[in-house]
């Protein structure tokens, strides 16, 4: 069985690398029980460092929309050149809700 693919950076997610589930519609904005996607933890942190919960719920609730966001597209292109287990601290914290 092959490893799942991260919907942001399109790299494989081996079982031994940090990973997390992203709610396509944030739980705080009515997404409890809504679909989630498995992704690299570093990619998930970049999403929440780049966008507010309201922006995620309103405009960026699909993998395609996330990949189209300018900052996330730049990040995805950068991290795609790193190995699947690459870890780095994301500058700045989570955006305000």
Taken in chain order, the helices and strands follow as EEHHHH
Number of helix segments? 4
N→C terminal distance: 38 Å
Give the overall shape, derived from the CA principal axes. globular
Q: How much of the polypeptide forms β-strand, as a percent range?
A: 5-15%
Mean pLDDT: 88
Q: Low-confidence runs (pLDDT<50, min 5 residues)? A: none
Mind summarizing the main beta sheet? Answer: 2 strands, antiparallel
Computed CA radius of gyration, to the nearest angstrom: 13 Å
Structural class: alpha+beta
Q: Please identify the oligomeric state.
A: single chain
- Largest sheet, spatial ordering of strands: 1-2
How many beta-strand segments?
2
The percent range for helix content is: 25-40%
Keywords: Endonuclease, Hydrolase, Nuclease
Protein name: HNH endonuclease
Organism: Sulfitobacter aestuarii
GO molecular function: endonuclease activity
């Amino acid at each position: 069985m092959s490893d799942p693919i991260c919907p942001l950076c399109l790299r494989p997610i081996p079982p031994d690398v940090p990973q997390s589930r992203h709610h396509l519609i944030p739980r705080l904005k009515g997404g409890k029980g809504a679909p989630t996607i498995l992704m690299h933890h570093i990619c998930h942190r970049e999403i929440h460092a780049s966008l507010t919960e309201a922006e995620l719920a309103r405009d960026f609730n699909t993998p395609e929309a996330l990949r189209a966001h300018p900052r996330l597209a730049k990040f995805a292109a950068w991290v795609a050149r790193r190995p699947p287990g690459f870890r780095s601290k994301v500058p700045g914290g989570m955006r305000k809700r």
